Every structure is written in C-alpha cells, then in structure tokens.
C-alpha cells in the first residue's frame, strides 16, 4: 500500500471508532441490566444535534457534551420508564423513539446546519504520547477519543470488579433473585438504562464535536446506532469483546476507501454491510451452542467448546423482559 | 375509548406545538400548511395516494406477522428486495414488446422477492433461534447494500457511476397512468383489494384463526395440533409478499427506475401505522392515509415557512407513543397487565 | 431467635393461600412445615421472608412486632430463605452468587469472601468450587451454595422450602448433617416439605397445613398415622369403581428416562391396556407430568422406547401421536390448555374441519352451543375463555377432547370441580373407557384415584415406587408412598 | 424592495438538490436567485431544497413542479444533474411553463421539449486555477481530488484541475510531471448520504493520512476544509480547496487556498428576464467568466476567490495564469493530450471543441483513480 503510514492508519482507526465504541459500551451496560434500548440510532443523532447546538451557542465544548449526554440519558429514561411503570414492550417504545428522535433532530437542528462550531482538538497524554508507535496510535488523540479507550477498561472493571457491577449482572439475569437478595431491580434497571444512555449521548456529541465535526442533514452518523446495537451482540454482552468489534468495524470502514483504490471491483457496500451478517451469524451460533446435542458434543471436544465460548456470549436472561401489571 | 383518543390527540398537539415553538415557528400556520399541502387540491390528494399505496400494502403485510406475534422489522428490506426483482424483470424488456405481460411478471417477481427476504428472517427465527428483530434489521441493511451495489455496479447508467439511480425504463414499462391525476389505477385497485383480502384472510379463514391462536398462546395452539413454526413462516411469506408488491409499485409506478432510497422508509413507517391502528385491518388504511397526508403536506413547511419537513415524522412518532401509553394506562386501570405490541 | 406468626392471611385475588395461620418457632430447633400441594406452605414462608406482603397478620421476633416489607428487611432481622425454585444466577460464578447481595460500597473484597465461602463449606461438609458457573452445579449443590450465603449474611432463622426434592440421597445426608449442626449452633430452621420421612428424621416439631389453615402441630415422637390424616384430611370414602376389562396394549413405556419437572423420570417401564383407567398419584413434580408428556410425544426421552398401540413411536413428534388418537390435556388451563383471548366458538373452530380453507363459523358456533350444553359450561359461545371460572374452563377443556380417542392422558382432569361435577366428568370419561380407550390421569386427590382407577401408580422423585390395584391398598398406604415411606 | 413594488410580480421556482445553506453548490444557486429578486423588478423566488430521494423519500420532481406552478411559478429552475428525467417529465406536463435544467444536456441530445433550456457555467477555468494553486502549494507533490460521482461533468472538472496543476508543476516550477501525484477518489454522489455514499470525511482524512497535503473538493459540501482544519490542529501541513460557493472558505481561513465558485446572479437574471419578455426558445448555453475581473459578481458567471492560506508568491503567479487564460495565451485543452488508458484525446496542436470538453469520456493521462465505473 503505497504511502500508507501504518501508525497514522491505526491512529485513524482508533479515532474513527470512538463514538460507536462509546455507544456500544453504553448499550452493553444498559442491556446487562436487562433493559434493551432500541432507540440508539435516533438517540445518537439527536444528541449529536443537541451537543452541537449547545456548543455553538455557549461556545463551550463542555456544555456541548453535557447537552448530548443529557439527551441520551433522558431518552433512555423514557424507554426504561415506559417499560417499568407502564409495562410497555421495550422494543416497541425503543423503535418508535428511534424514528421520532431522528426527525426531531433534523427539525430542531435546521437553524444550526453547517455553522462553524467548536472542535475538540488533539490533547496528547503528557508522557505516554512520547512512546514510539504506541504514543501516536493511542495517546495523541482528542479527549473524547481517549475517553472512549478509557471507558473500555472502566466499564469492564465496573461490571466485573465492583459490587455495583455484580448488582447489574444479577438484575439482568434474574430480577427476582436480585430482589430476594435485597436489591431493588426496578431502581437498578432505571439507573443503568440512564447511565448507558448517558454514554450513548456522549457518543453523539463525539460525532458532532470531534469525529465528524459539525451538524447538518445528514450529519453523517446516521446508521451508527444500529451498528452499535449489532456490536453489543457481536461482543456477547462483554465490553472488551464489543470494543474489539467496534475497532474491527472502524478498520473495515477505513479499508473500504483504500480498497476502492486497490480492487475497485469489490463493491464498497460489502464493507458497509459486513457487520450485520456477522451479527446474525453470531446470534445463530449462540442459539445453536445452547442446543443440548451441541453442548454434549462440546463437552468432549475442547476445541469446539473453546470456539463456541469465545464467539458466543449469552444474553442476560431477563433482557427486554416485559413487566406484567403486578399490582 | 373516545376519551382515550381525545387525550392522545391533546398530548400530541401539545407536544408538536411545543416543538414548533422551540423552532420559532408559527404553530397554527404550520398545521394549516400541512393540511392545505395534502388535501388542498386534487393534485395534492393524488400525491397523498401515491404515498398511501406502499404504506398500506406494507401495513397489510405487517398485520399477518403482528397477529402471530412476530415483530417483522425486516419489512423495510422486504420492500427493497421486491423493488430489486421488479427492476430485474423490467430491465429485460428494453424492446417495445408486450409491456403489460412484463409488468405483470415484474409485480409477481416483486412479491416473490419480498416473500423470499421475509422467509429468510422467518427461518432464522424458527430454525436458527435468532430474534426476528435482529434478523430483520440485519437483512434490511444487507438489502440496502444490495440495492446500492446494483445501482453503483452492474445496473449503473452507461459511463456514469452515480447514486442517482439506474436508467429510467422505457415508457411502455411504466404502470399506466390516469391522465391528469398521475396515479396508476391498477396499483390503487390492487391496494384496495389487498386490504379487503387481508381482512378476509384474518377474519374468515382457518389460517387467520391459526395466526391469532398461535399469537395468543403458542403452547396451547401447539397442543391443539397447530404447527406454530410452519405457520410463522407462512405469515412471513404473506408479509413479505405485500411488502414486495409495495416495492414493485415504487419502481414500476413511481420512480420508473431503481434508486437507493427506493423503500422511502415506508416499511418502518408502516410499523408505526399498524401499531397506532391498534393492529386493526380497517383502521390501518385510515392511519396510513393520515400519515401519507403528513408526509406530503409537510413539504409545504420548507417551501412556505422555511421549516424542515421532518416535523411530520415527529408528529407520527409522538402519536404512536402517546397512543401506546394511553392504552397501557387503560390496561393498567383494568388490572390487565402491559399490552404487548404483538411481540 | 423466637419467631411467632399470628393470624397470617395471604390472598391472591380470590385465592386464599393462607387464612389465619399461627406458628411458633423456637431458637435452636428445626421446625417442619408439612402439607400437600397448594396447602399454602411456600406462601406462608414467603410472607415470613418478606418476599411477598401479607394481607393481614402479625409477625413477632423475640416478642416484639416487626413490619418489614422486603427480603432485605427480613434479612436485616436475621430471617433468610432458600426458595422452592432456586433464585440464583446460573451464568455467574459460585463465588459471585455467594457475594451477590452481601457486598456493598466500592470494593468487592473477593478474596475475603472466597475465604469465607470455603470456610463455611468445610464447616458444613460441602464441596464447592468457587470459580465454576453456578449453572453447572446440581440442584443439591446450588442449595448448599444458597445455604452458605444465607449463613454468611447473618441469617439466624433459616427457611428451606422443599430442599430435598430432586437431590441425591448422598447430598441429602450432607444437607441434613449440616442443618443439624446449624441448629445446634443456636439458629432456628424452618423446613418445608411433603416428605414425611425427611421431616420426621430431622424436625423437633411439625406444623401441618391444609388449604391455608393449620390442621395440627406435633412434637416428637411423631405418629405418621396422625400426620397423614392431618395432611390429607379425613379417611377417604370407600372406592366405587366401574372395573373395566383390560384389552390389547394401548401404551408401552420400555425403561424410559427423561429430564423435566422437578425430578425428571428414571427407568420407568409401564404397560397400559385398552379400556384401563390408570391413576397417577404423587406430589407435584415427582415425575407424573413427565410420564404423561412422554406418552403424548411432547418430551422426547433420553433413553428407552415408547410404543403406542403396537407402534414404536420413539422420537416422533406430538402431532404424530395425535394422529394415532392420543389426546393430552394439560393441568395449567390458561397456560397450555386454553388460548387467552379466543372465544369458545373460536376454540371449537380450531378443533374441527382441518381440511377446509375457510372457517365454518356457523357450524363452529353450533358446536360451541352443543358443548356448552353438554358439558354444562356457564358461558356463551362468544365469551372469551379467560372470562370463564376455573371450573368451567376445566369443563371446556374436557369438551375439547376428541370424539373417539384411543389413549387419553389427563393432568388433574377434575381440579377445581365440585364433587358431583367430578362424578359427572367421570361418567363421561367412563364412556370412553368402556368404548375401549385407555385413560391415564394424574390427580392430587387420593379419594378420586381410589374411586375411579383400575390401577394406581405412585410416583416419588422420578421413580414409580408403587403399582397396585386400588382394592389391594388404601389412602393411608398411598399417602405413605407419596411421602416416600414404604 | 422598491423595485418589486413597481412591477407586477413574476414568480420563478428553484429546485435545489442540497440544503439551501450548504455553503456549496446549492447555496450558490440560492443566492443567485436572491440576486435576481434584488435586481429584476417584480421577480419573486420560491424554492425547495434537499430535492433528492434520500432527504425527501417518496417526493418526485414533477410533484414539486406541480406545487410550484400552483404557487404561480412561470419559470422553474432545476439545479442538479440527476433531476434530468424528472424535469423533462415535468416540462412535458407543463408546456406553457418555462424550464431550465442546469448542467443538463437534453438540448444537445435532442431529448428536450421546446420549453426546456440547458445552461451551465464554464467551471473548467475555476478548476484549472484550483489545480494551479494546489500544485504551487503542495510540499509532497501529492494532490487529492475528492470526486462526487463519475460522469462527463465530473471527469471534465477533475481533468481541468489536473491540467491546471500539471501546467503549474511543469511550466512554473519546472518539475517533471512524473513526480506529481494527482489522485481522484469518488464518493458516489454530490454530498454525503450516510450508508449510501462513501463518507467524504473519511476519504479526506485518508488523503491527509497518506501524504497528500492538498485536497481539491469536487463535491458540494465542505468536509475537505473541516478535515484540513482538524489536521492543521494536529500540527500537520494541510490545505484544502472547496468548491461551488464564494463563501466556502469562511471559517477555514487557515487552510483554505481559495475556492472556484459559481456566480449564478447574472446568468439567472438573464434567464428570468428572457422568460418574462420572451421569446423563450430551447437552447444550450455555457457561461464563462468575466476575464476583466473574474470576481465581479455583477458580470462574471464563474470565479476563483483567493483564500487566506494562499502564499503571496503563489498569488502573483495566479494573476499571470488568469491573464494568460483570458487572453488564450494558455490553452490547457490543447494537444498533445492522452487519456488515462493511453489512447489519444487531442493530437499535437489540436484544441478541444466545447463538445469534446463537455463529453469527456475518460480521465486524462497522469491522473490516478477510476475513470469510469467498471
Ligand atoms: N408449545 C410447544 N410445546 C412443546 N413442544 C413444542 C412446542 N412448540 C414446538 N414444539 C416442538 O418443536 C417442534 C416443531 O414444532 P412445530 O410443529 O411448530 O414445527 P412445524 O415446522 O410446524 O412442524 P413440521 O416441522 O413438522 O412441519 C415440534 O415437533 C415440537 O416437538
Ligand atoms: N403468585 C400467586 N398468584 C396466585 N395464586 C398463588 C400465587 N402463589 C400461590 N398461589 C396459590 O396459593 C395456594 C398456595 O400456594 P403455595 O405455593 O403456598 O402452596 P404449597 O404448599 O407451597 O404447594 P407446593 O407443595 O406445591 O409448593 C395455591 O392454590 C396457589 O395456586
Ligand atoms: Mg417445521
Ligand atoms: Mg411450595
């Protein structure tokens, strides 16, 4: 590949993945608690708009990100409350909100379209950015990008190494069990739906203030919400695996442009679409892996077991479970 | 019921007005423009009907899948694939010969295409254990990719690589118009037929009864001797067929070529239509008409008030949310537990 | 700690699960709660554990009234419960399950808890690997885990709901010795069970529930006789049976094993002849459900073969069984039997005219009228089934049985019916039998079984431990067998 | 204001493919329309923007035209290449209304009904200037061209930019053309449609990440400038040349070398006047710059607005270049010229006719990138 500097390429991939990565982590947390927030695509767009508008009017990036986060959080809260209080299907609510928030963003955003806005510039990490190779690839990015990388470990640590994380996983697996142990499932679900939504909102802000700066119709982040939802599954509801998925996707995107130059006959759409068949494949794998026959087979074929275990993660048992009218 | 409707509408008007004020727009004038722009003249109404046709067809299809408790979000992709196969057939008819037969074949191909795409999602669910939402979503994006690839690659206009679409068909391959109001009576007729047919299928046939039984209680239906999985596949076939037909009309009746946005998001919108109609065959066409009015009328907003036309989407979404909420609250008060949007 | 329940009421809508229960549990004792299915044991315990709010009543701990409304509250007062169906988190590791609910604040203190868990396990004689997913444990081990957790979270009153169903004899030994040592440590233990022998082996005092009220209490030494009559009520009426002539083979299960239910089914071999009426006795989940579902083709057995008539139907699906005239009727009416949201007419339409494309609504409605009349269902053709009362739903289920079945498999066919309807139902079923159909039914009413069955199979923990003609046995003997005492 | 009050109102409609405020192609047209409203007595503009299936699903050109006619439009201007079929259909349906299809060629191909006019600006010159300053500015000798979709027009414009660049490289810098890299990457449409086109932000970033330091934008929106600014912030040397709109450099001053732009005011007012007074006859016009002052917004049809990032030396060279272009001393579409594939475009000394330039079938020798979608 003529003239392609591998460090710059990798740095580009890391930076490009940041928003989708944040959204994926957010949704992973939400779903770990048993709530499925299908409204990601709309949420990201609306929060991107809100973030940009706020940043432009106040001239402060911080205000922008705050606005984005707030939007993300409130939409997630809506999904959770409609399900927990009214017993509505999370899928239905999430889906309607997806379409609605997107249009809302376009409608309210027209007056901000293509304005000059503040832009989160690079903010190298003091010492680390000096490290050869790793420095430029990992530690020389703008704050949101660095934040996204920190969040991978942070969310993993929070989910698997803190009491609150344990709480989340319990509620997502078996709310009654959690209740029997003195945990209030509804509160946990609401709280972490909002927390996840917060991250999704930041993802939107990261688009309009950093990765694809500016607002317009289209902003350019359209569709990334669905990708994030797919990546959550791809990652088997594990933040680190999901992160790997996000980087893989970013890699595919960057590559598709080189590949246009190299073999123009490979349709670029292949790369656009790739994540989704992958997601379906993983899902089939998960359900197949749950079949008794396969399980028995896996028991005495360690290789097979290893493959299944690395690829397939189990969804939280109570994911999206509908709350019936408990009086 | 009436009270509930009234409440819903109040909520929606309230919210939309708030949004309009946020955007610094005159609410009343905006509403007036939307009404005028959709029902103000015969020409306008024909445009509304042009939107109503695919919307209603997709909704008809969704009624089958919702009835058996499937969330056929893949309807969007089913519309696209229908459009693709229709285009494929019509492309073969460059010579001026027997256009009608070709058109008929194209429509059939469209339905087949939609059905095929739906069945894939169906089997992914029944055999592969993939929830129909994710199967459908995935297939939607694959279908979009397919459309783009065809337009950008194999079916591109000679010497041109543009996302503006494939070459326009020769006129004898367009669905015949009524002069003056530019809508195809055939398409309109078939759509009305589809509504009646769907009503008949769901009400009068064993198939319809099976859908309802399985959708209400799969286990019991199975014990009654029904075949839940096979019936689900059948339901998907119906849904896909109607969605595919919608795609065919988009190609053969509206654009006369394949364009990237051929489905125009009507599949997704149809999901809202059916939800808002409370999964009723007879209400759905009315809701579809209302939504079509919003879509067409909202064009006036940018033209007259320099507002964005996406307001229509906001209104539609709010409507459905409010309706769902009201319904749930009523169910609550009747101690009925949460209603499930077919899922 | 001294626990005292006074006049506890718990109503679920119309169901009165507990109506006015008094109970006293002394520290350092093991207190048994005995009762047949649906007696209200679990409900009472859930109330005590704060899992469900009581409708009425008072709970005194060491003489002072307490008003907690959640398991958390109960645990703060030192009351912990091990639930009938385990409320744990299969994908999470044993250690995580152990820590869940115990750890608060910022840090996990994983190592501390690991040590704590291992210490408790060795103390109680349990062997648990802290790092395997709880889903991989056996039921017994999952109970051990829960027990350890409750102890470590400071429970001074331990409630165990049916701890001995579906666990191996060995694990039972371990469990019992553990419980004994816990009690010796001064904690009180409440043991809920159906099983006389367990209770008798372990408890210092026994309270018997029946239909939501206390029918008696007893201290050591126990009289099985008395306990049984408290459990199952008065001496059953003498059997009045039609007595059919066994004909050709209708069903043959050859050494069949399958999972499912609480205990599954193990090495079961049974012959059923045409014209025979067979009653399945046993506590819920002892294997009779699995038995019926295997015979219906709904569960495919791991091992063994299934013959219907002379046909080997092993591994075939339900629909294939149906086509041989096998009819299955589930106990849970609205979960499996009837379809919520459909009317009686629609149910009739489902049943008939398989071939046609259209629904014959008029015939369906006529049929509905006939059935409603014939089976004395209080309802109209277009009333949705969920609007019918339990008893009427039961009648409707019977009405949907095929005209001329070969093999009828019925779960609790008369549950919720009053006595004369029971007689009426059995007259109806007898007609099938005398026509040569074989009938296999399960029932929690011993009287009913003794009254109508030509043969009784008693299930215990997934095994058939008794296969006799009613005239060779009586309610007491059956009661013992059901409770696992031979 | 006063002018409008004087004469009786004459309404003309404008169909914009992009947002009216895209700071690119569509805004140029929009402001052209406003210029007409200001200068032509009685002229009144109604417009609808984002006229493309992605932004307005289910909306067709004839439908919008109907609406405009209903609102009293006597003349309808469609500003995008891919409205070709729609506007032709509409023109047939409204024979008594005047139609203009900008950038179209129905008149040349004879498909046009009598009431349809084609017009366009000679952007070739603007692009030549863009290429010229790009070549004089690049340090790495690598110029990226952010192409929209592939057709005659876009090939023509990309080619012109290349010719300008090669002239500067060869004749001004006296360097070997072999050392000049000129890479064209197409995104698939005039602006980004997520999931449909390649993402121009990504494409631009890749240019700068792979050693290109000047990116000439051929698309309607300003991603190139935004990304260049990002890169500059990261301390890279990066310049960009946007397209279409005179104000496209605003806000990107630190990296913007200038912008070749359309100035539709004069052309539009000519058309509107003609439509008011008649006679209206089907014709194909190609409007050039005003060589006296290519940035005189009252007279010129295309221009090149210098950006703040343009070095003084380069400015001087540019002046001469423009003078020579105007005086035809420099003619870049003049043989010998070969296509990418080595076949001959113009023989030694041969000067291309308008049609030859308009219908450029391939990219030129020395350019990299797909020349026609395979
Ligand atoms: N509610 C249920 N209860 C028990 N088993 C079920 C239930 N639903 C499906 N099954 C099992 O799944 C299998 C497939 O069920 P189903 O009858 O829906 O498949 P089908 O495709 O309709 O039938 P076939 O594949 O024979 O055409 C059945 O054979 C049955 O064993
Ligand atoms: N959540 C509930 N809603 C409605 N009815 C209930 C509920 N829980 C229990 N019941 C009813 O209350 C009665 C007592 O139930 P309970 O579970 O206490 O019986 P049990 O003695 O534990 O029986 P088993 O030995 O089978 O566990 C039963 O009739 C049951 O149907
Ligand atoms: Mg099948
Ligand atoms: Mg119980």
What does this structure look like?
The complex is a heterotetramer of chains A (327), B (343), C (486) and D (374). In chain A, 71% of the residues lie in helices and 0% in strands. In chain A, helix 1 runs antiparallel to helix 9, helix 2 packs parallel to helix 4 and helix 3 packs antiparallel against helix 9. Chain A starts with 5 loop residues before the first helix and ends in a 16-residue tail after the last helix. Chain B is mostly helical and 343 residues long. Chain B is 72% helix and 0% strand. Chain B contains 14 helices and no strands. In chain B, helix 2 crosses helix 12 and helix 3 packs across helix 8. Chain C is α/β, with parallel strands linked by helices and 486 residues long. Chain C folds into two domains: 230 residues, P-loop containing nucleotide triphosphate hydrolases (Rossmann fold), CATH 3.40.50; 234 residues, Rossmann fold (3-Layer(aba) Sandwich), CATH 3.40.50.300. The two termini of chain C are 36 Å apart. Chain D is built from twelve helices and 15 strands. In chain D, the strands form four sheets. In chain D, strands 2-1-3-4-5-11 form a six-stranded parallel β-sheet, sandwiched between helices. A five-stranded parallel β-sheet of chain D has the order 9-8-6-7-15, with helices on both faces. In chain D, helix 2 crosses helix 10, helix 3 packs across helix 4 and helix 6 packs across helix 7. Chain D starts with a helix and ends in a 6-residue tail after the last strand. The N terminus of chain D is likely disordered. The interface between B and D is large, with 39 and 38 residues.
Keyphrases for this structure?
B: 343 residues; mainly alpha; 72% helix; disordered C terminus; D: 374 residues; alpha/beta; 5-stranded parallel sheet; 18% strand; globular; disordered N terminus; binds adenosine-5'-triphosphate; binds magnesium ion
Discrete helix count of chain D: 12
Radius of gyration of chain B: 21 Å
N-to-C terminal Cα separation of chain B, in Å? Answer: 23 Å
Largest interface: pair, residues per side? A-B, 51 and 57 residues
Assembly state here?
A: heterotetramer
Poorly predicted sequence stretches spanning 5 or more consecutive residues of chain B: 336-343
Strand order of the largest sheet of chain D: 2-1-3-4-5-11
CATH class of chain B: Mainly Alpha
What is the CATH topology descriptor of chain B? ABC transporter involved in vitamin B12 uptake, BtuC
Helix/strand-derived category of chain D reads alpha/beta
User: What percent of the residues of chain B sit in helical stretches (DSSP H or I)?
Assistant: over 70%
What is the total number of structural domains of chain B? 1
Number of strands of chain B: 0
Shape of chain B: globular
Note the run of SSEs of chain B as H and E: HHHHHHHHHHHHHH
Bound molecules: adenosine-5'-triphosphate, magnesium ion
């Amino acid at each position: 590949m003529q003239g392609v500097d591998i460090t710059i390429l990798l740095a580009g991939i890391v930076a490009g993945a940041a928003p989708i990565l944040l959204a994926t982590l957010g949704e992973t947390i939400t779903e770990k608690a048993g709530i499925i927030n299908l409204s990601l695509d709309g949420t990201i767009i609306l929060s991107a708009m809100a973030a940009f508008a706020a940043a432009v009017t106040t001239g402060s990036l911080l205000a922008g990100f705050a606005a984005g986060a707030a939007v993300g959080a409130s939409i997630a809260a809506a999904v959770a409350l409609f399900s927990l209080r009214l017993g509505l299907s999370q899928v239905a609510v999430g889906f309607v909100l997806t379409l609605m928030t997107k249009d809302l963003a376009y409608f309210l955003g027209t007056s901000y379209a293509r304005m000059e806005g503040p832009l989160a510039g690079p903010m190298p990490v003091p010492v680390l950015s000096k490290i050869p190779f790793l420095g430029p690839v990992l530690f020389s990015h703008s704050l949101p990008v660095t934040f996204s990388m920190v969040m991978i470990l942070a969310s993993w640590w929070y989910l698997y190494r803190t009491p609150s994380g344990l709480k989340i996983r319990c509620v997502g697996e078996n709310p009654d069990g959690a209740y029997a142990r003195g945990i209030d499932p509804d509160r946990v679900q609401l709280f972490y739906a909002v927390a996840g939504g917060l991250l999704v909102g930041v993802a939107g802000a990261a688009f309009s203030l950093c990765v694809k700066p500016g607002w317009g119709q289209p902003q350019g982040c359209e569709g990334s919400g669905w990708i994030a939802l797919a990546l959550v599954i791809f990652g088997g509801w594990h933040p680190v695996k999901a992160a790997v998925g996000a980087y893989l996707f970013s890699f595919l995107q960057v590559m598709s442009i080189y590949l246009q130059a190299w073999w123009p006959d490979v349709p670029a759409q292949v790369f656009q679409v790739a994540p989704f068949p992958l997601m379906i494949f993983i899902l089939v794998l998960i359900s197949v892996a749950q079949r008794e026959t396969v399980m028995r087979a896996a028991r005495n074929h360690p290789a097979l077991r290893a493959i299944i275990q690395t690829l397939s993660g189990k969804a939280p048992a109570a994911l999206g479970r509908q709350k019936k009218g408990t009086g | 019921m009436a009270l509930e409707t009234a409440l819903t509408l109040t909520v929606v008007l309230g919210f939309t007005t708030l949004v309009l004020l946020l955007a610094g727009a005159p609410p009343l004038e905006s509403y007036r423009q939307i009404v005028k722009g959709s029902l103000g003249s015969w020409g306008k109404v024909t445009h509304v009907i042009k939107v109503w046709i695919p919307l209603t067809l997709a909704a008809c299809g969704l009624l089958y899948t919702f009835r058996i408790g499937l969330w056929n979000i893949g309807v969007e992709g089913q519309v696209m694939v229908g459009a693709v196969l229709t285009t494929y057939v019509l492309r073969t008819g460059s010579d001026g010969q027997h256009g009608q037969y070709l058109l008929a074949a194209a429509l059939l191909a469209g339905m087949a295409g939609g059905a095929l795409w739906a069945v894939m999602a169906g089997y992914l669910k029944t055999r592969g254990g993939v929830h129909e939402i994710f199967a459908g979503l995935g297939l939607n994006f694959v279908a979009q990719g397919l459309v783009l690839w065809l337009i950008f690659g194999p079916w591109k206009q000679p010497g041109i690589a543009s996302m503006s679409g494939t070459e326009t068909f020769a006129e004898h391959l367009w669905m015949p118009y009524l002069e003056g109001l530019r809508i195809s009576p055939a398409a309109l007729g078939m759509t009305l037929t589809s509504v009646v047919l769907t009503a008949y299928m769901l009400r009068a046939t064993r198939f319809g009864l099976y859908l309802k039984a399985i959708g209400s209680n799969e286990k019991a239906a199975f014990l009654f001797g029904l075949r839940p999985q096979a019936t689900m596949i059948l339901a998907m076939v119906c849904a896909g067929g109607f969605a595919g037909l919608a795609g065919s009309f988009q190609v053969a009746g509206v654009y006369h070529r394949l364009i990237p946005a051929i489905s125009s998001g009507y599949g997704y919108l149809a999901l809202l239509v059916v939800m808002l109609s409370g999964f009723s065959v007879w209400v759905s066409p009315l809701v579809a008409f209302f939504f079509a009015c919003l879509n067409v009328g909202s064009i006036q907003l940018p033209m007259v008030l320099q507002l964005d036309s996406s307001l229509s989407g906001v209104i539609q979404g709010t409507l459905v949310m409010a309706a769902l909420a009201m319904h749930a609250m009523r169910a609550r008060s009747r101690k009925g537990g949460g209603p499930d949007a077919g899922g | 700690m001294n626990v005292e329940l006074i006049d506890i009421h718990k109503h679920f809508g119309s169901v009165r699960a507990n109506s006015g229960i008094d109970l006293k549990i002394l520290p350092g004792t093991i207190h048994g709660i005995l009762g047949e299915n649906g007696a209200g044991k679990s409900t009472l315990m859930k109330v005590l554990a704060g899992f469900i709010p009581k409708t009425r009543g008072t709970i005194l701990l060491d003489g002072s009234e307490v008003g907690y409304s959640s398991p958390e509250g109960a645990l703060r007062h030192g009351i912990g419960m091990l639930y009938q169906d385990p409320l744990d988190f299969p994908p999470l590791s044993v250690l995580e399950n152990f820590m869940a609910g115990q750890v608060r604040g910022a840090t996990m203190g994983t190592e501390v808890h690991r040590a704590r868990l291992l210490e408790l396990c060795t103390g109680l004689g349990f062997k648990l690997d802290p790092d395997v997913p709880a889903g991989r444990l056996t039921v017994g081990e999952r109970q051990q885990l829960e027990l350890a957790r409750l102890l470590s979270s400071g429970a001074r009153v331990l409630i165990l709901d049916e701890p001995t169903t579906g666990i191996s004899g060995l694990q039972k030994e371990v469990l019992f010795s553990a419980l004994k040592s816990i009690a010796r440590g001064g904690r009180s233990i409440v043991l809920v069970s159906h099983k006389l022998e367990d209770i008798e082996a372990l408890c210092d005092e026994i309270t018997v529930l029946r239909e939501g009220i206390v029918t008696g209490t007893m201290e050591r030494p126990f009289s099985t006789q008395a306990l049984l009559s408290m459990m199952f009520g008065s001496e059953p009426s003498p059997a009045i049976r039609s007595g059919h002539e066994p004909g050709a083979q209708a069903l043959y299960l050859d050494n069949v094993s399958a999972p499912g239910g609480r205990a599954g089914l193990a090495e079961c071999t049974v012959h059923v002849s045409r014209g025979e009426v067979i009653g399945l006795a046993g506590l819920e989940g002892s294997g009779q459900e699995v038995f019926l579902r295997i015979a219906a083709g709904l569960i495919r057995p791991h091992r063994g073969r299934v013959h219907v008539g002379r046909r080997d139907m092993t591994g075939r699906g339900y629909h294939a069984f149906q086509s041989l005239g096998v009819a299955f009727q589930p106990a849970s009416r609205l979960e499996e039997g009837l379809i919520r949201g459909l009317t009686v007419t629609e149910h009739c339409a489902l049943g008939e005219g398989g071939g046609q494309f259209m629904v014959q609504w008029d015939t369906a409605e006529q049929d509905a009228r006939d059935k409603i009349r014939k089976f004395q269902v209080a309802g109209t053709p277009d009333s949705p089934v969920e609007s019918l009362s339990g008893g009427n739903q039961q009648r409707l289920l019977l009405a949907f049985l095929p005209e001329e079945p070969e093999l009828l498999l019925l779960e609790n066919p008369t549950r919720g019916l009053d006595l004369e309807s029971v007689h009426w139902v059995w007259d109806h079923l007898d007609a099938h039998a005398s026509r040569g159909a074989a009938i296999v039914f399960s029932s929690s009413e011993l009287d009913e079984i003794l009254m109508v069955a030509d043969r009784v199979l008693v299930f215990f923990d997934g095994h058939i431990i008794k296969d006799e003609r009613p005239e060779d046995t009586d309610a007491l003997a059956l009661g013992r067998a059901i409770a696992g005492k031979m | 204001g006063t002018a409008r009050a004087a004469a009786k109102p004459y309404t003309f409609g404008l169909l914009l493919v992009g947002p009216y405020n895209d700071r690119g192609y569509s805004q140029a047209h929009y402001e052209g329309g406003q210029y007409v409203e200001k200068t032509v007595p009685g002229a009144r503009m109604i417009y609808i923007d984002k006229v493309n299936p992605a932004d307005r699903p289910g909306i067709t050109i004839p439908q919008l035209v109907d609406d405009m006619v209903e609102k009293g439009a006597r003349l309808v201007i469609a500003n995008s290449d891919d409205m070709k079929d729609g506007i032709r259909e509409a023109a047939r349906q409204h024979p008594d209304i005047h139609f203009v299809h900008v950038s179209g060629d129905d008149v040349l191909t004879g498909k046009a009904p009598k009431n349809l006019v084609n017009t366009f600006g000679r952007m070739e010159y603007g692009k030549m200037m863009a290429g010229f300053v790009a070549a004089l500015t690049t340090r790495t000798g690598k110029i990226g061209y952010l192409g929209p979709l592939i057709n005659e027009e876009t090939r023509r414009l990309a080619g012109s930019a290349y010719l300008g660049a090669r002239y500067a490289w060869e004749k001004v810098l006296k360097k070997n053309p072999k050392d000049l890299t000129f890479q064209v990457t197409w995104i698939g449409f005039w602006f980004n449609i997520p999931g449909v086109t390649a993402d121009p932000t990504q494409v631009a970033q890749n240019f700068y990440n792979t050693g290109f330091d000047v990116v000439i934008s051929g698309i309607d929106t300003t991603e190139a400038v935004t990304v260049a600014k990002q890169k500059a912030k990261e301390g890279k040397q990066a310049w960009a040349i946007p397209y279409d709109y005179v104000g496209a450099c605003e806000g990107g001053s630190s990296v913007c070398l200038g912008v070749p732009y359309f100035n539709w005011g004069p052309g539009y007012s000519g058309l509107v006047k003609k439509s008011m007074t008649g006679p209206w006859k089907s014709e194909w016009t190609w409007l050039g710059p005003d060589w006296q002052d290519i940035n005189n917004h009252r007279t010129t049809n295309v221009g090149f607005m210098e950006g703040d990032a343009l070095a003084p030396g380069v400015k001087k060279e540019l002046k001469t270049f423009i003078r020579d272009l105007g005086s035809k001393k420099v003619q870049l579409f003049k043989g010998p010229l070969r296509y990418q594939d080595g076949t001959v475009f113009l023989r030694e000394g041969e000067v291309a006719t308008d049609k030859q330039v308009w219908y450029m079938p391939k990219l030129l020798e020395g350019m990299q990138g797909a020349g026609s979608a395979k």
